[in-house]
Amino acid sequence: MEYETPLFFHVMGYAADAEGDVIDMVSGNPDWEPPESLREGLREYADFDADRFQYPPSEGIRPLREEIAARRGVGVSQVVLTNGAGEANYLAMARALERGAGSEVILTDPVYSYYPGKTTMLGGRAHYVSAGADGQLDPSVVRAAASEDTAAIVVNTPNNPTGAVYPEATVHELVEIAETNDAILVSDEVYDHYDLSGTFTSALSVDSAHRIVTNAFSKSLAITGFRVGYAIFPPHLVDDAKSRHMLVNVAGSRPAQYAVLRALQETDPAYHEANRDLLRERVDLFTGALESAGADYVEPDGAFYVLARFDGYPGTLETVEQLIDQAGVAGMPGSAFGESASSWLRFALVTPRVEEAADRLAEYVA
Ligand SMILES: Cc1ncc(COP(=O)(O)O)c(C=O)c1O
User: Fold this and answer.
1) Ranges for all domains in the chain classified under CATH 3.40.640.10
2) Residue 2 has pLDDT above 70, yes or no
3) Per-residue pLDDT tens for 23-75?
4) Digit-coded pLDDT (tens) for 95-108
5) Among the ranges given (132-141, 185-194, 215-224), the one the predictor scored with the smallest mean pLDDT
6) I need a labelling partner for 119 at 20 to 30 A (CA). Which of 145, 171, 282, 358 fits?
7) Which strands form 150-156's sheet, in the order they lie side by side?
8) Separation of 229 CA from ligand 1 center, angstroms?
9) pLDDT band at 253; cut points 50, 70, 90
10) 251 Cβ contact partners less than 8 Å away, ≥ 6 residues apart
């Protein structure tokens, strides 16, 4: 079997190896600080007795699972701590496909590039439904695509790469479509703290045996390297997911889980508000400069990416490499996110130099 290897690490490497000054807007690695309590938790861990350097419970340390369960209003037994949202999505999709309730996975186009590879890896077949130019998903399109062969419907809100935030009615209807078709809605909400519109609704807002919510602290606490995420399963699906997690990983990282727990307990909501403010400012600066240059872009309602389009520069890897080498700005090819994004380029707002980046791009393509 051939896996579709996502392009992110390739482009990051290309940008890092390039000569000259390159503004790196490739991947969703926040450049802002984690909460101070997270650093304190990590420091504190270094001096713990060595028995706390040994295996944690496979499904994750109990107090962090309890903290998450309390915040999300679910039972602690439903929470599995994972190696980032990446593993959470993998466990969720695996469970959906293993139930003997179909082999098709409904994905959106544009799509977060890791879902297609996971679908294939797990023996599923991707069935794409198109999201509009603004990334919004029309539930009636999903309903028309769903059938008894649908095992999972995988969505992401706030969305990477479009920045769309699905309204409450869409989220509720997606859960209902999953129920009607004996499918599982997998709702990846890893950017929930970066809802810039105030309209985000979690799929947890509907109680259902047909939805799994995935999330992580990678983005919300600016720690993509810590690898702490979680999935919330309906009670009847959780045990097999825990077994798969154990068979693949044995367990997660205990010091990382501990530091996340400290951060959750001690971080003020103002931390997240400040990050959203920073992003709003960057969105304005970046899109403002694109606007002045007459370039097309998609204004994001959430997450931290902007899709931009320049005449004569298709959203291919070749264009991206050319822009890295000649314009000094590194983004991702839209084609990595599906057919419908193939004329776009995606830029992650993870640098203070977003305005300069937009100016460089505008000048180069002029
Ligand atoms: C939509 C989406 N899901 C999952 C992930 C992966 O998250 P993690 O680093 O927690 O595995 C990302 C990372 O960019 C993402 O954009």
Assistant:
1) 54-266
2) no
3) 999 999 999 999 999 999 999 999 999 999 999 999 999 999 999 999 999 99
4) 999 999 999 999 99
5) 132-141
6) 171
7) 79-82, 229-232, 211-216, 184-188, 150-156, 104-109, 125-130
8) 9
9) very high
10) 55, 56, 57, 58, 60
Query: Considering the domain 8-34+269-365 in this protein, what is its CATH number?
Result: 3.90.1150.10
Give the right CATH number for 54-266 from 3.30.70.20, 3.90.190.20, 2.60.40.1180, 3.40.640.10: 3.40.640.10
3-state secondary structure 169-193: HHHHHHHHHHHHCCCEEEEECCCHH
Say whether pTM exceeds 0.90.
Answer: yes
Catalogue the E-assigned strands of 171-270.
184-188, 211-216, 229-232
| Alpha carbon of 276 to ligand 1 centroid (Å) | 18
Amino acid 139 reads: P
